[in-house]
């Protein structure tokens, strides 16, 4: 654990040099010129061939990646591409990758592998791979040598360089590698093409300094950089004015928003300012780190008008020994204290968490301690993961838990949690929930949406409910969903 701790300290020192790093306007202008050039090229192509070029963006991973992909798609549109959801008809394919677990990387590489055939059929096809996976050196080499038909790659910190890379590829035809450790200044003003007209992601900070010993994120997304409060407020104001109803602030560790700046405000201050924006909307944020989730944050939620009574607070393990090995820098007592304060100040708060099973050295006692914490806290929902060793992280070098043990613990955890989730949902039967409707569900007889606590609710609805708040009287509860009828 000394290794992890050293990394944390180093990150904090490095951070000193990265204060207030906002991308200079000249750089943004340069990229805008590249965008114009590509647009011109695409217009010319349409004039001569009669067809407009199409772009396809495929996204793996978390909401942060979804948000990045909305910017990639926004830039594509600004460059004159029409978006398509079919890779086969695309002239430009962008794959935004994830590195959090082995499985995510395997999936991305397998899809990129399939695109070889598309390129063989259409040699003019341009393929770009970006995101967390290709921010790792060994994966850059994989792409370089094993996927020679990939035209360019760029890391998470180089998102704003996408137009320049594409233009250069189109002009010179050479393969391009723009890799970084996710570290770059914050780029404002990139075009965004949002997937939804009523739910929006707003990134407020990038990167992570925590170096949890299992996690690849600090290596692929670099040091923490925050956006200025004014820029975030302006963006949220714009979204509310456009009719967005559900706005989620994103960051790897939102509680340390602006922590490394000398701007004189913190995450709670930002929340308070956003909460003052008039309109009918719900404000959420993720992810919070328990070590930084203090009373001020919880008071802010309690005293707010629009912040959802909901908190995602990854616990990771219920064993103090394992938490220490994970370099999480809190213990179960501190975690419990935070939960108690939350439940005192915001009694109806939905509380969700992340758990990793099979972290190196996890014993049966450690695992039993996790189950005990689950029973004690009773989370509404849990995102549980089997530990996946990540190259270059301290935990990958530790003594590993055998796969079959991990699998058994994972199943046991799910069983315990299913019962808890059901018991958390049952008291909602008979209540009326305000649900933001997402349209018709997989079951064509039912519409679905999410309540303030972000729980999924099914009800017989109609097309015009989509994107609106609907009151639903809950009639039945399952572990993962609520069912009811529209009211009033
Ligand atoms: N293996 C398994 N799960 C992981 N997570 C992060 N890194 C790993 C890993 N190497 C989980 C954590 C985190 C969530 C986003 O992913 O629980 O909170
Ligand atoms: Fe990874 Fe989250 Fe820990 Fe950062 S705080 S290292 S993103 S698990």
What does this structure look like?
The chain has 488 residues and is α/β, with parallel strands linked by helices. Helices cover 39% and strands 19% of the residues. The chain contains 14 helices and 19 strands. It has helices spanning 2-16, 25-49, 63-78, 102-121, 137-146, 162-172, 217-221, 229-241, 267-275, 295-303, 320-325, 332-345, 364-377, 403-425, and strands at 54-59, 82-83, 92-97, 126-131, 152-154, 176-178, 199-203, 205-206, 225-226, 246-250, 282-286, 310-312, 350-357, 381-386, 432-440, 447-450, 456-459, 469-477, 482-486. A 6-stranded parallel sheet has the order 2-1-3-4-5-6, sandwiched between helices. α10 runs parallel beside α12 (332-345) and α13 runs parallel beside α14 (403-425). Bound molecules: 5'-deoxyadenosine (5AD) and iron/sulfur cluster (SF4).
Which spans have pLDDT < 50 for at least 5 consecutive residues?
Answer: none
Structural class: alpha/beta
What is Rg? 23 Å
**How many H/I helical runs?**
14
On the 0-100 scale, what is the average pLDDT? 95
Helix content: 25-40%
Using brief descriptors, characterize the structure shown:
single chain; 488 residues; alpha/beta; six-stranded parallel beta sheet; five-stranded mixed barrel; 14 helices; globular; binds 5'-deoxyadenosine; binds iron/sulfur cluster
Short description:
By secondary structure, the protein is of the alpha/beta class.
Task: Give the SSE map.
Elements: H1 2-16, H2 25-49, E1 54-59, H3 63-78, E2 82-83, E3 92-97, H4 102-121, E4 126-131, H5 137-146, E5 152-154, H6 162-172, E6 176-178, E7 199-203, E8 205-206, H7 217-221, E9 225-226, H8 229-241, E10 246-250, H9 267-275, E11 282-286, H10 295-303, E12 310-312, H11 320-325, H12 332-345, E13 350-357, H13 364-377, E14 381-386, H14 403-425, E15 432-440, E16 447-450, E17 456-459, E18 469-477, E19 482-486
Parallel strand pairs: 1-2, 1-3, 3-4, 4-5, 5-6, 7-10, 10-11, 12-13, 13-14, 17-19
Antiparallel strand pairs: 8-9, 15-16, 15-18, 16-17, 18-19
Helix pairs in contact: 2-6, 9-10, 10-12, 13-14
Bound molecules: 5'-deoxyadenosine and iron/sulfur cluster.
């Amino acid at each position: 654990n000394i290794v992890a701790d050293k990394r944390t300290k180093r990150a904090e020192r490095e951070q000193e040099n990265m204060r207030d790093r906002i991308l200079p306007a000249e750089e943004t202008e340069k990229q805008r010129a590249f965008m114009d050039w590509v647009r011109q090229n695409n217009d010319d192509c349409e004039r001569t061939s009669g067809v407009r070029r199409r772009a396809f963006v495929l996204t793996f991973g978390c909401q942060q990646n979804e948000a990045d992909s909305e910017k990639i798609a926004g830039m594509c549109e600004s460059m004159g591409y029409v978006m398509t959801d079919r890779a086969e008809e695309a002239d430009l394919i962008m794959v935004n990758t994830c590195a959090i677990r082995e499985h995510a990387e395997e999936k991305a590489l397998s899809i990129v592998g399939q695109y070889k055939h598309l390129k063989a059929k259409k040699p003019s096809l341009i393929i770009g791979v970006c995101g967390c996976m290709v921010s790792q050196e060994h994966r850059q080499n994989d792409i370089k040598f094993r996927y020679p038909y990939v035209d360019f790659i760029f890391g998470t910190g180089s998102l704003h360089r996408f137009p320049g890379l594409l233009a250069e590829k189109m002009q010179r035809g050479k393969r391009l590698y723009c890799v970084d450790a996710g570290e770059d200044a914050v780029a404002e003003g990139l075009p965004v093409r949002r997937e939804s007209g009523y739910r929006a992601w707003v990134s407020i900070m990038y990167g992570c300094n925590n170096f949890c010993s299992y996690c690849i994120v600090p290596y692929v997304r670099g040091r923490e950089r925050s956006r200025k409060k004014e820029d975030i407020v302006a963006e949220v104001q714009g979204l509310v004015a456009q009719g967005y109803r559900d706005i989620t602030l994103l960051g790897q560790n939102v509680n340390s928003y602006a922590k490394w700046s000398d701007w004189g405000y913190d995450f709670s201050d930002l929340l308070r300012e956003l909460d003052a924006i008039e309109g009918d909307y719900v404000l959420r944020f993720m992810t919070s780190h328990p070590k930084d989730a203090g009373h001020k944050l919880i008071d802010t939620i309690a005293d707010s008008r629009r912040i959802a009574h909901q908190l995602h607070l990854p616990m990771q393990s219920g064993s103090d020994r394992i938490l220490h090995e994970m370099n999480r820098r809190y213990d179960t007592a501190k975690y419990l204290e935070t939960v108690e304060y939350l439940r005192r100040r915001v009694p109806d708060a939905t509380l969700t968490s992340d758990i990793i099973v099979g972290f190196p050295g996890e014993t049966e006692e450690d695992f039993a301690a996790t189950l005990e914490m689950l029973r004690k806290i009773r989370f509404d929902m849990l995102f549980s993961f089997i530990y996946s060793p990540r190259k270059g992280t301290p935990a990958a070098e530790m003594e590993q838990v055998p796969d079959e043990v991990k699998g058994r613990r994972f199943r046991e955890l799910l069983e315990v949690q299913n019962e808890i989730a059901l018991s958390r949902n049952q008291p909602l039967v008979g209540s009326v929930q305000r649900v933001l409707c997402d349209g018709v569900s997989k079951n064509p007889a039912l519409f679905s949406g999410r309540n303030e606590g972000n729980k999924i609710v099914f009800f017989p609805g109609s097309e015009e409910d989509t994107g609106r708040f609907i009151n639903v009287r809950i009639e039945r509860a399952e572990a993962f969903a609520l069912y009811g009828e529209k009211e009033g």
